[in-house]
Amino acid sequence: MADGPKNLLEKGAVHLEYSKNLYKVKSELKYASKSYCIEHYFEKTNNDSRVSDWNFNLHELQLCFGVNDFLVIAPQSASGVVLDAPEASKLLSAVAIALTNCSSLLPALVPVHDPSRKAYIGIQNMGTVFTRRFEADHIGTQVPVKLMHLEGLYELFISKFAYSTLDLSVHLFKVNFTMKLTYRTIPYDDDHDLQGTDAEITEPGGSPGSDTHNRVQWDDDCPWSEWYSAEDPIKGFELIALWSEKMIESSLQMAELENDSPHDAEKWILFPTFSQNLSDGSKGNQIGFSSQLHLLIDALDMSFEAPFIEDFVSVENTGPDNLKTSMIIPPPTVIDRVLKELFHEGVRDPDFAKGGHKSSRAIKGAPLQSLFVQFCLNCLWFGSCNIRAIAVLWIEFVREVRWCWEESQPLPKMPANGSIDLSTCLINQKLQMLAMVNPNNVWPPRGRLSQRMSEHGNLWRNIWNDAPALPASEQKPLLDPNREGEKVLHYLETLRPHQLLEQMVCTAFRASADTLNQTNYGGLKQMTTKMEQLYLTMASVLKPVQANRLSAGSEIFEDLRRLCGILEHVEKLLTVAASLHRKFLQAPRLSEAIFSDYYNFYLPRMRTGSVEDKVQMEFDKKQQVRIHERRVISNMFTLPTANQSWRKVLSMGNLLNGHEPILREIIFSMRDRVSGNHYAAHTPMVYQREIETYRMYICGTSNDLRVALSVVSCD
């Protein structure tokens, strides 16, 4: 206390993560054979806000007893509490005397009883003839029915100061009351499971669990759902309803208050619950483009170990020794299904401009709907995306391309006219040429020379002038279609493994980003900026791969793996953005505010070289819900089904669409104006002020109850 907050901070006080303003210092005290720990909790700056305002950054003991700075004195033992009542009383008395002798007004608290009870006793010298005493305890099971209701809790409080012979239900006592109720939506995964269970019951004759295959996933209409289903990053929401302080005069008022709707509360505070997989960095079961691109890069690394694609297909062929049966090749039925999707199903004339970002052309890949892109994306999910599986699918892919050529069939998912796009990868250019020289000719019409070629003395102008004026159909073609087609097929059939994989990596990265870029996430500016940054980073990292500057064991492989990590972060943020957008279509402000908070929380994880212990581990930001947004939030609390076991017995009131609160917190208090001699001051004086003479904090559900009481008395 003598040091003061500033000096304590300089001496190494520890900041408590959940609070912006609370710090702690520890010291040890030995008495005879026993050792005690004294913890001093203090606020860096004076906090004038009252505890009844439900500050979310409070320490539990601040909330329990309505104090700011305080001491906790506990034995250094396995339990950390004083199990012996005489020892607890003696310890607290000794501390109280010591604090009084140094004119300290700090509350002192001692943990007692069994640790599971979270019980405390405490005392505070108020600097006058008054002393405040504290007591807290917890009921873990079999809460009395009376204490499950507001009326019974009100009578519990007034019993602490009213005469025991009075009928508390008919007498009037002016008590200050404020309440905080916490509601929780059904976890979205559980909600789906419950719907499945209901389906099995209500549809006799259906096979058990058959609805699982037809279950609608949250991301069914998201662009990535064609390739994988992502976990909903938002597991649910907690809604905190706050009732402002009011005067209560009778038990009847409390009984009526229990029937109030949460819509009558002064404030609604919303708190999203995010999946742990988002922030804990675990790879686990997370499947997405980034995880599969990791595997594709491994295949690229291995592609330098053999000169021909065929070497990777059969282990009998001459090739690397580590190509064994561990690299699984999917069965023929799977291969046939993939080839059917590539060549015989889907849109014949796709929109090649769809989904492309303005910066995607800096990456030598191919348009999202084109044939080679679809081959690459299928490879990501073909088997385990190993080099053997890719080699098998590539050989079959080239056979199908040759069949289309030899049977004069149009090449699917490729433009049959126009000019060859030189900004794409070489394989896509070759496929474009093959589609254009297919005998079934749509060649671009001949017209006029460009302005540059029409200039005087230009060779092309002379050739143009000397050419006979014949229709294009009667002119001799500049290129022999058959010869050019065979040259393309020869290139595809003799392509070196590393050349194939290099183009696949660039194309797959661009296609993954283009797919994700189609996600609808509303007006979340941070996400738009992050997508633009992703394209620029990809173009920079992939440049050496596009320039064929890659070799076995190159340092570029580590750059590519880091790029996968960046893409993984973007994927996670994108799922958050998409999930929030669809949940708050009618309340976009909340979607933007929650995402902004989560983006700032997640951002340190994206910085390379960040120190892990400096990263906030738990997301704790909350958003106040405006009046016009309450209907949207209320609709999230869907009516519970009969199969929800926790709903079978409703013990508390204040229901929200049939949901009872998961936690109820109440503060009762009484205040009086008192006069006293401030004997701790250098000059004794008499004054009057209002103090909180009785205060009770109650926290619990129908299954447990915690009560903390502070009482001011004149000793």
Automatic annotation (TrEMBL):
Keywords on record: Cytoplasm, GTPase activation
Protein name, entry field: Rab3 GTPase-activating protein catalytic subunit
Record flagged with keyword Cytoplasm: yes
Protein family membership: Belongs to the Rab3-GAP catalytic subunit family.
Pfam families, alphabetized: Rab3-GTPase_cat
Region Disordered, residue ranges: 194-215
Residue span(s) of domain Rab3GAP catalytic subunit conserved: 446-493
GO cellular component: cytoplasm
The UniProt record lists the keyword Ribonucleoprotein: no
Location of the protein in the cell: Cytoplasm
Family matches, as InterPro entries: Rab3GAP1, Rab3GAP1_conserved
Coiled-coil residues: none
Species whose genome carries this gene: Carya illinoinensis
Entry GO MF terms: GTPase activator activity
